Amino acid sequence: MSLSPSAAKVQKVLEARGFGHLKVEELPTSTRTAQEAAKAVGAEVGQIVKSLVFVGERGAYLFLVSGKNRLDLRKAQALVGEPLRQATPEEVRALTGYAIGGVPPVGHDTPLPAFLDQDLLVYPRVWAAGGTPKALFSLTPEELLALTRAQVADLREI
Questions:
Q1: Confidence check: pLDDT of 1 > 70
Q2: N or C terminus of the chain with fewer C-beta within 10 Å?
Q3: 128: buried, middle or exposed (CB in 10 Å: 19+, 13-18, 0-12)?
Q4: How many Cα atoms occupy the beta-carbon half-sphere of 118 within 13 Å?
């Protein structure tokens, strides 16, 4: 079965970066939310990587957050050194090339500085969006770090 154009774009990025062993899968059910994604692949909600885009005056940022956590905006602002707001759906598409619910951690139209929720590191494998609200791929947290060059941080809202 061939992948949709958006999922195929993510697969090509993985291959170009030397991670061709990772495979984007398109599922018959929605993986738009962390809960839906976890159910679809039989994983814990915490293993799902939420790709959240926030913007400030100096640019946009990508926060890769465990599906069980909410991003602490104060912690995020302290990391980047400026006030932030969540990107609108239109801004997310313009910056990444993907719609909310399918934003992968890689392959964005605009390279975004990335921050990785330290809580993702406790899992042997995590699942990230693969370009559409029905596409995912599985990888280790170490592979995710290598792919995104993200800075590991405490992002969880308490």
A1: no
A2: N
A3: buried
A4: 9
